[in-house]
C-alpha cells in the first residue's frame, strides 16, 4: 500500500518538517528518527510511504518541526489515524499543522474531557456504499444538541442546501463523514457548519473563507482530510475557581487539620456557588523531621507519596475498629478548636493510631485485589519510599549520608530488604498501608468532586528535597552541590534560597525525562490540571552555591558568562579585587553596624592594602557565619550581626565562574543597589550598569529559550492534564513566547505586572490562555495588602478602580467585592481566588484581622505553614445569603 502525506504548513528558510509514527520507517515516534518531508510549494510539504498491509491495522502518526537552531517541536495533534485494514491500495492524507498553542487544544485536556464537556453524542449520519473522501475535523464547545455538518459545491455535499447538509458523527475527538465525490468537479469549495440535531435545524456556518479541496479521488484510492478545527470563536469559555491548601480546610469531622475527606465538603460549597475548579497546594509527603518544619509543602521527601497528615482516621478504621479512636476524642476536639494547625501534634497522633490500625487489621489488606493493583502500579516508587521512611525512623534523620547502612541506594538490596520474608517487612509494609489509604481517600474525594462538575488542579514543586527519597535513589539526576532559589523581588528583597538541589537536565534527558513522565502520570490519577511552580526554572534556574545562605548570592544556570576581554572592549578597566571581593570600608561598616562598627571591625575583619578590610577566614562565607553564630545566644544582637555580615559578604559586583581561571564572570543580581557600586567613580557606573542590563535582559534570552524547548515540549506531550505555569518574578522575554507556543496558561496578578513600565496589571488585559488572581499563597491577601502599602493602594484606588478621592484606610467589603468582580469579568480562561479573598466580600464572614489570613512569607525560609479557615465548611455551606450573592457574581460574569 502506498500512502501519500500532504501537510499544509507555511515554513521559512531553515525550517524543516518530518513525519513520525508507529512504524520503524517513521522512527516509532522517536522524533530524532522521523522521516524527512519534502517542500512541495508554499502551501504543502510532502512525503510518500510504502506500507505492508499486514504490519498493522491502523497507522498513527504525527508531524515534527525543526529549525536551523536545533529547536524541535511536535505538532499539537496526537490522534491522527489512518485505517489500513480493508483500505484501498492508495491512501492520501491531507493534513493541517496543529499548533500546540491553539486555544482549541485546551478543550481536549483532562478538565474538559473528564469533567466539563465530556458528553458523548451519537449522531446518525448517512454513510455512502462507496466513498472517495473522508473529512475529519474537531469542534470543541458545541451546544448540548449540536453537531458538525458539512456543505459544499457538490451533489454529495448538498450543493449548499442548508436543509440537507452532511452530518458528521463522533470518532474520539474527531467529527467524521465519508462521502463519494467521484462525480464532482474540482476544486470543490466547502465549509463546515453547526447543526441542531434535536430540532433538525441548520444553525450557522463556520467563520472565514470557504475551504477548497484540490485532491480528486480515483479508483483504488481514498483521500483522508484532517481539517484541524472548525473556524468558530473558541476563546469564550470561562470558569471560576478557588485556591486553598488542604491543610487549611476546617470541618466538624477533621482532626486539627484539613484532610482529603474535607475536599467533599469543599466541593459541595464550590458547586453551590457556581465554581468549576478547586486548586490545591502540593499534597506530597513532607515528613522529613516529623516536626513543624515539615509543614512546608514544597519540600517533599517523595515526589510520588502522599502526606500522612491528610488521612481521615475514621475512614481507615471503619465501624469494626472505631473503638481504637475513642481515646483520641478529647485530643481531636482540642486540636480542632485551635485557630491554626499544630502540625506536630496532629502528625504524631495520626501516625500512632495508624500503627494501631495496621496491627489490628493484620495482613488482610495486603491480599485484596484493589491493594495488589495499587501496589503493582506504584512499586517503582512505593518500595524505595517505604524503605526510606524505615531508615529515616531507624537512624533519626532523613539525611542518608548520616545513616549507618544503605547510604547509597541499590535497587536489589532494597528489594531484598522489603521482601515479605525479610525481618523488617512489618515496618516496611506499614508505609504501604498508609499510602494505600491515602490513595483511596484522595481518589474518592476527587471522584466526588468530579461528580459535582468540579475540576481538581494540583501543584508540582520546581524542586526536590535535598534529603529525600528521590535524591537518595538517583543523586546523579541532581546537582547536589548547588541550591535552587529565586532572585530578589518585591516580596523577598534578598532573593530566596529553597535549599533544593538543582536538576541535572543533561542526565535526565538521557532517558527522555522518564522521572518527569512518571511524576506527571502519578499526578494524573488525582488531578485534571496542574500548576508548575516557578516555570521559569525550566528556562534557567537560580542557582545558589552551598557556601551561601541568601538567595542574592546566586546566578542563573545556564547563563553565558562574561569574558574578561569584554570589559576592556566596553572601556571598563577590570579590577578583580574591586569587583569580585567584598568591598568593606569604615563608612560601610558604620552604615551597617552603627555603634557596633568598632567591635565588628576587631572581631571579624583584617585590614588590607586596598584601604579597606577583608573578612577573616572563619567568617568569609555566609554559611560559616551562620555556623559560628549558631553557638551564640539567639537574640536581637546576634541576628543583627549575622545579617550585617551577610550584607558584607554579598557586597560584590561580580562572581567568578568556578574553574575559569579568572577569565569568566557573572554579575551579582541587584548590583546597582550595593554599597560597592554606589561608591564607584561615576565614569565606571554608566558602562558597568549598561553591561549589567545587557547581561540579564538581552544576552541570555536565546540560550534560555533553547533550554526550555529541550524540556517543556517533551514534558507537556506526555500528559493529558491542562498545564498552568507560575511565570512570576524576573521573566525573560522568551517565556511568554514559549508558553504561548506550547499552550501553557500564564499566571496574571494585579500586584505583579509583567510589564515593568506599569505598577498594576488590570485583569481586563489578560490573555485568554491565562489564570487571573488577586493574590496567591505567597502573598498577603487583598485586605492585608491594602493596609501594608498605603501609597500603592491609593494609586490603585484611583487608577485601577477608577474611584476619586482618598482611598479608605481598610479594604471595605465593597472594595474587596469590586476587585473580585474585576477578575471575574476578565477575558482569561480561569479566574481563581484564595478563599480569604472571596470571604473578604462579606463584612460579617471575613476574618477580623486580615494579617492572620496569610499562608506563606517567602522571605522567611523557616516559615510555619499553618493557616486554617476560621469557620467550618459546614458553616460556610449554611451561609445562604453570601453563597447566593457569590453565585450571582460568577453567573453574571459568564463563568
Folded structure, characterized:
The chain is α/β, with parallel strands linked by helices and 895 residues long. The protein is 32% helix and 19% strand. It is built from 27 helices and 37 strands. It has an eight-stranded mixed β-sheet, with no helix packed on it. An eight-stranded parallel β-sheet has the order 34-26-21-20-19-37-36-35. Strands 2, 3, 6, 7 and 8 form a five-stranded antiparallel β-sheet that branches. Strand 30 and strand 31 (613-615) form a beta hairpin. The protein is globular and about 100 Å long. The two termini are 50 Å apart.
Question: Which SSEs are present, and which pair or pack?
Answer:
Layout: E1 2-8, E2 16-21, E3 35-36, E4 38-39, E5 44-50, E6 58-66, E7 72-74, E8 80-83, E9 90-96, H1 110-116, E10 133-138, E11 146-152, E12 166-167, E13 169-171, E14 174-179, E15 188-196, E16 201-205, E17 211-213, E18 221-229, E19 239-243, H2 262-272, E20 277-279, H3 313-317, H4 329-336, H5 343-361, H6 369-395, H7 411-417, H8 425-451, E21 455-460, H9 469-473, E22 478-479, E23 482-486, E24 496-497, E25 502-503, H10 505-509, H11 514-524, E26 529-532, E27 541-545, E28 555-557, E29 562-563, H12 564-569, H13 576-580, H14 586-593, H15 597-604, E30 605-607, E31 613-615, H16 622-629, H17 636-649, E32 654-656, E33 664-667, H18 675-678, H19 682-699, H20 701-717, E34 722-725, H21 734-742, E35 746-749, E36 770-773, H22 782-788, H23 790-800, H24 813-824, E37 830-834, H25 835-839, H26 873-877, H27 880-892
Parallel strand pairs: 1-9, 9-18, 10-18, 19-20, 19-37, 20-21, 21-26, 26-34, 35-36, 36-37
Antiparallel strand pairs: 1-5, 2-3, 2-6, 4-5, 6-7, 6-8, 10-14, 11-12, 11-15, 13-14, 15-16, 15-17, 22-25, 23-24, 23-27, 27-28, 29-33, 30-31, 32-33
Helix pairs in contact: 2-8, 6-8, 14-15, 16-17, 20-21
